[in-house]
Amino acid sequence: MRKIIESTLVSLDGVFGDPHIWATEYFDPEAERYALELLSMADAMLMGRRTYEFFAAAFPIKQASTALGSTSIHKYVFSNTLKKAGWSNSSIIKGDVVAEVAKHKQQDGNDLVIYGQGLIGQTLLEGHLLDQLKLWIHPTLVGRGQLVLSGRRKNKTEARRD
Asked: Least packed by Cβ within 10 Å: which of 31, 69, 87, 130?
């Protein structure tokens, strides 16, 4: 069975939204190596429409030498509104996120990776499908924005430091 691993950038005050605005200066070569290592151990990425659109614009096909720009890793995009996924090796999945991800999790293969703590990650956490939540805590206070895990009901988890 595959693991589902979420990797999320978080500020000291718990903000995860819009990390391209506040986290970029902390994303050094070591952080990039770690992120690419996580992705290299995965068969696919899981994402919602907004993350898909951000990544597709940030890592176009001409930059395919980077792992995120890779045309080989499969990208599963969960959206009921996206009509076409033009980024290479992408599939749009409509409907019940938990049921669809549960099917993919049961398949043979390597892990499935989610970048960012959006609706997909929150839904999978509540559906007890998220195996690991890796929080990259950045030494900055953003002051306002979307808070990681806010408004979620209580879930028993195990914390450990990698």
From this structure: 31
